[in-house]
Predict the structure of tRNA (guanine-N(1)-)-methyltransferase.
Amino acid sequence: MNIHVLSLFPDMFTGVFGASILKKAQEKGAVELAVTDIREFSENKHKQVDDYPYGGGAGMVLKPEPMFNAVEAITAGRKPRVILMCPQGERFTQKKAEELAQEDDLVFLCGHYEGYDERIREHLVTDEISIGDFVLTGGELPAMTVIDAVVRLLPGVLGQADSHIQDSFSTGLLEHPHYTRPADFRGMKVPDVLLSGNHAKIDEWREEQSFLRTLQRRPDLLEALELTEKQQEILAKIKSQM
Amino acid sequence: MNIHVLSLFPDMFTGVFGASILKKAQEKGAVELAVTDIREFSENKHKQVDDYPYGGGAGMVLKPEPMFNAVEAITAGRKPRVILMCPQGERFTQKKAEELAQEDDLVFLCGHYEGYDERIREHLVTDEISIGDFVLTGGELPAMTVIDAVVRLLPGVLGQADSHIQDSFSTGLLEHPHYTRPADFRGMKVPDVLLSGNHAKIDEWREEQSFLRTLQRRPDLLEALELTEKQQEILAKIKSQM
């Protein structure tokens, strides 16, 4: 997969793209990550990329030319998904990550501080993605977040040992609690069942805990699930104990 | 404000903490950002920080000692909010950013790949925050995201020119479209009203567009609003035209 990011702050990506899974994925050849400074595509001798808004008001607006020029230069006739990181976009989910992981070619556009000229939104981008209802300084952190979620799904990127954490959203339930050594840490103890060696009981405890946690923290996830008969029994048992 | 991050990948933070608003906020003395490697607090000569899960299963679990030791060492008797970045946590919102911006002292715990020992969750942390329903490699990008959202709210961090973008969530509506020069870019034109110089009409257009966009993309936001009589009229007008 090719991923190309357009940003006004390309240095922000160095640490994240050079560590952990994103580093390994590049070394394995699963993904090529590139970051280009939007300023390189300004037609203005001062490398200006923004200007005052038509109609007045505070703040600056990213001009259309640098963005169109940059996307055209880096795609060179290919037709990638062009993703605008923007608080008004579709909310990012694991399903969207899985969808994007099927592509060969992704371009991410990151604004910073300011609005985008609407013509970028209407005529240049194929997807608008938001990672949530909060205000950030720019689209860089959201782009890194989406890229991390997508790249770890690419074939060969995760080893077996890493891949289990995907379960937390694929079952539709929150994960059960985890414990490791020591069994007694400053008087805080691991539940007996996990030390019992009885795997049927351990599985049962974990499934119950998973339902309990989902019920307490994210009942909306439960509503979206079609439960098996056995799961309905577990849920009824938990509710009766609450 | 003091912000201290505990991570297994401290180098991931360099680019983000050294650029843009987070850089400026540190230079202005509004925030001190520090990142510490959790491995420094391992009691094991191999600097091991994780171990196999009790009860079996794939994946590793972060041990309690290094996390407890690290938090105790860096807080040295102070009582900061200790925030665990975790997909099971409370969903991060602008309201939570505003709440955290009132604090003097925040500690962020970032796991990587794996689960946390439950005793960390139960006895060490004060808040568990998730940035959304997607699977990431670690808590580092979520921590950076929360830190960016919080630090930009601190007094003196944003200049007047930057501060307008906060509006997008404070009005409860999505922003209206923005346009800047050129008025005609490759045949794509700026709406006439914005070039009219009639500020009453421009304000009206913007408010209508803001409602229209919210209605099309995020009707859930509208349901949460108490509309003035004038706003109800605008909404009725838009709906009648759809």
Notes: Chain A is about 40% helix and 20% strand. Chain A touches chain B through 96 residues (CB under 8 Å). The first strand of chain A starts at residue 2 and ends at 7. The longest helix of chain A spans residues 199-217.
